[in-house]
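Entry type: protein chain
Record version: 2
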Amino acid sequence: MTRRARVLAGRDSRAATNELLAGLQRGGFAPRALGGFIADATLRSWREARKRPRAVVEATAVHVAVGALAGRRGLPWIVTSWLMAVTHFGMLEGRRDLGAANVLTVARGALPAAGHRLGSPATVALALATDFADGKLARGTASVTRFGAQGDFLADTALWTWFVLRHERSAAWRVATFAAWAAPVLGVTAVSFARGGMVDLPRSRWFRPAAAVEVLIGGRVLWRWWASRRVSGHLIRRA
């Protein structure tokens, strides 16, 4: 077995990803190299998912539940979200299941599929609640994983980008959302491919612009909802 084969078959998901990216770079990003990259990445994802049938069942159950609420309209998002989850189970590393924290993260990533049924206030409330709870659960139960750390940011990126594009008319809020989530993801991805190895997203405990934007957008939506309820109640009482 070659060194590359050993790395791709090993438990270290970061080493495997680095090997895949390095091979793509060595191949000059030519069609043959790209094809090999996709084939090897798909094979590794399949192997890692097969090692974790319980995690597959958990992720599937979450998406079936959200999909039942979403209906046919949300099916494309459900399928995409499910594929994103099950193809990254190597990042669970030593775990064989998702765990409660990662279940919440996966559920948040699937939420936009049911946004048209839940409505803006409920979607925002669930997003904020799960984002707060998954980190607390992971740290409190000593179950922090790379899957959770990376998945948390990607779930937020997908959900808040979708929400702002769909529900927010303000160009300023759209730009702020892109700068807080999509831009860092795209930047890290581009640099990782260019360097032939994974680059971590810079994160600070004290400086977290994405968290600030999330709270501001969520608070704005919930405030509008509460204010409209007050006005409606006042009009009903006057009538």
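Comment: Residues 69 and 114 are 6 Å apart (CA to CA).
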